[in-house]
Amino acid sequence: MDAILFLIFATIAVLCAINLVVQKHPISSALSLIGVMASLAVLYLLLGGEFLAAVQLIVYAGAIMVLFVFVIMLLNAGAERRSNRSLMATLFGVPLLAAFLALVAYVIQRGLPPTEGVYFGGFTQGTPRAIGRVLFTQYLLPFEVTSVLILIAIIGAVVLARKEI
Amino acid sequence: MEFYIITLVKAALIAFVLLTAAAYLVWLERKVLAHIQLRLGPSRVGPHGLLQPLADAVKLLTKEDLIPRDAHKPFYLLAPLLAVSLSLISICVIPFGPEVEIFGYRTYLQLTDLSIGVLVVLAVSSLSVYGVALAGWASNSKYSLLGGLRSSAQMVSYELPLAITVAAPLLLANTLSFRELVDAQAGYYFGIIPRWNIFQFPMPQIFGFIIFLIAAFAETNRVPFDLPEAENELVAGFHTEYSSMKFAAFFTAEYINIMTICCVATLLFLGGWQPLFPAQYGSDFVPVLVNLGAAAVALYHGLNPARPKDRLTLPVVAAVFAGIALLFLVPFLKPILVPLFWFATKTGFLVFVFIWVRGTLPRFRYDQLMKFAWTFLFPVALLNLLATSFLVAVTSK
Amino acid sequence: MQSMTSVPLSWYLILSAILFALGVAGFVIRRNLITVFMSIELMLNAVNLSFITFSYQLKQVDGHIFSFFVMVVAAAEAAVGLAIILTVFKNRSSLQIDDISSMKY
After folding, report:
1. For chain A, how long is the longest CA-to-CA vector?
2. The complex's ipTM?
3. What is the CATH number of the domain that holds A49?
């Protein structure tokens, strides 16, 4: 069951990611990215990260990507113009990507110590309670720093959104 | 295996009840609005227009299904599918009652109880922007695009106060599961005042409840925040270009969303299926009395008919109500039906409020809407959360 | 043990690598500013997946915290980045990366 679910959603994620790269229109890319995020949320659930899965949907798919879609719709950006790319890039780029991936896969397979594999329920620390406990004790300082970061981002966005610039 | 069968039966039952309820919600809305405006409302198809939803479904199914020539076809087709499927997902985690025993099986009146149930509802509601935004964009029409843009901005803005007010009851109950949330609201102060979150001591969530309702109006694109649709300025907003079943999909999704959000409000603030007053004062007999009262009213109007055909129809209605009242007295059904009655009553009241507000308030202007969300609703929601968390911190050991 | 149905840990890591590589590819070959930005988000997502996978393997919740922070940073980044993109579009009415090259010289 785990393997089937993993294969289904991994396939969806990879297909959506490829679609993101090859689609010409930004809104198609945005939707494929949402597909990647949703299938990753399912994989997080399989890995026991129930809180992260929900946050992935709320923050990534529900807030960040809405912003993207909103901007794309607002600018009414059409399909992108291809710049005059060389044949060499296509000829070498795709095999190079495949070779790089094969190398990474090989390194991961070889370098990883033998483990018992992932099954649903093998990790139960991903609950909101457990994450909250660690977040507000051990990681309190980073947490507070991110709030400053967000404040800076808000100010930056407000400044940029003014009419004069 | 048993688990799968029970789940399938429950899923089928919930889907059936939900879709029927959505269809009749349309009828109810038209009826209530009509009576608010001193009209009769649908009254041609069936007695009191009760078969109107059926007629509407037939009409929508047989209409011509137009796809605009310049529409982005895949997304144009995807949008209604997305809207309706997302609206159906969040009902999975909503509990309708406590654990009950049916034909020897102990089961919950709920499809599935997730430990992150509240987060799932929030996630799905934040995803439901896409249905509307995509519909607006893919139709390739200025009205649709404006409606879609308005809606995505509005839904994102109102999600913040919504999520923040939801956090306060979660703090009080210290859980994210809907069932535990309702269990935490069981019991009574002084043996009479229910421990629901809006009466919670020392931090009654009455402000939270009101903010939640206001944000819920905006989330479901209802009057006074129905800017995305705005019939008289944007024609119909994001679904201008949709016809036939695709339009029906948006329509159904909207009404299912209304019901879901009313269920969530009931669970979070109104104590779910917990009765209004303790069972020792006879709260179990309230459903019987209510139904008998309805039967008596129907019978009275049947005996003094305003129209000749009422003499036939209204006594039948009275008999149906009396039958329902008797069902609540059957000892085998009572533990299932009484919590369901309380849950349905509270949710139904909230749904009625939705319709009532639509019949009462005019539409906001767009800038007013945004200003209201960011300069009033959001700070008040934050204050409410701050006060609640402060009191929780003080009172907890 | 659930060895019958379990998934090797490496599969998750390889999936993460594939997504990351696709993100890099998108970042390099795409010419639309917004799409390039989305490729970055894809890379962040891929990294999150491997964080959570490692968190599973080590039976520690820290990986979840890291990806939580990544999400927060991504949200901040998206807010500022999209504001910049809006400003660029307002001034140049184009989203082509090739058109926005005045900083090159």
Report:
1. 59
2. 0.87
3. 1.20.120.1200
